[in-house]
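Please check the following.

. . .
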Amino acid sequence: MIGARARTQSVTPQQRDAVAGSNARWYFSGLAASLLGNSAMSLVAGVWVKSLTGSSAQAGLVSACAYAGTIGAPIAGVIADRVARVRLLLWLNLLAAVTLVPLMLVTSRAQVWIVFAVMAAYGIGATLMDPAEDALFAQMFTAEFRRRMIGWRLATQETGRLAAPLLGAGLFVLVGGRAVAALDAVTFLVAAAVTTRLRVDRTPPSRSPEGLTAALGAGGRHVLATPTIRAVAIAATAAMALSGIGVASQYSLVQGVGQRPAFLGVLSALLGAGSIIASLTASRMIARGGERSLTVIGLVNFAAGNLLRANHSLAAALLGSFVLGFALPYVFLATLNAAQRATPNELQGRVSAALTFALFAPQPLTQAIGSALVVHTSYVVIYAGSAVASLGIAGWLVLVPCSRSR
């Protein structure tokens, strides 16, 4: 999503601050555009399949296809640390826009396979973008400026997830999924245009002397060897894997409270509202209690939100979605803060990729498991079981020693 304009001459602190402010404005403009399309498409793809097939299991598998690309996250991290990140992100955004074109052919159940294929390619593109974007974000801003921005960055992302599901669901009801795909393609083009406005060194990162095999594992080794990252990352990985099991159940939840599939946009909007508040409060909570404490709070929120969803009440489903919105942002921000704080710049891309792999690579498997479970059991059982498991993870994180090392 990010590009750059090289500046090699020396600059004064005032000029540097002006460049940082300009970059921040362009960065958030591109982020807002891409999130609008991404969030709308991510929701509508599942709703589209549900509407065409009537199957919650198949709708849940759409998200599994999108996450399948995270298997290649370690390779994406090496690429982000070895090539010009701005050029990579520019071309990836252009290719992502082209990837969405086949969705214009989907008109009936016979073309549902196109949705699965496009979302799989969509996920591969996102996997390639994420470590390059995180590394460039760290490169583009100083540590102090970055600490101030990181909460706003996630808040912007969650604001997109709040507005975009309602927009996407509304467009889907009015004019169908192809209109949402067209909107998403346009936002990728906007993000690509923003890459030409950012001002940062375009020089490719210095290539490390280690071989490819060692480079692929460098991020993961750093995470496991750093006690301040390791325990939080393990708990976050378990929580994210657990969250995948409930993806398919949300379609049955909507049906269980007597609503149409597009009502999922309302639940997603409430989820986004909780996430925005979580994003804006996380930095202060980390300052007071640390990353581990925030992770535990997020896991307790996850349990509470799932318990509220584990019944047939519309009011409880609405409240549960709002409460659940706090959970994963707290867990994610705690992990991200711990990793960025304890990682040297030359490893930022690979550590980001390692965490992306750990947090999201299990999603296709756990979402497939959730799709199978929802066929054979009630969504109530799935949500209740997820709540119990989340409390177990929180208990482990509280009890594991802070300074324990391998």
In short: Residues 13-198+212-399 form a domain with the Growth Hormone; Chain: A; fold (CATH 1.20.1250.20). Residues 1-10 have pLDDT under 50 and may be disordered. The radius of gyration is 21 Å.
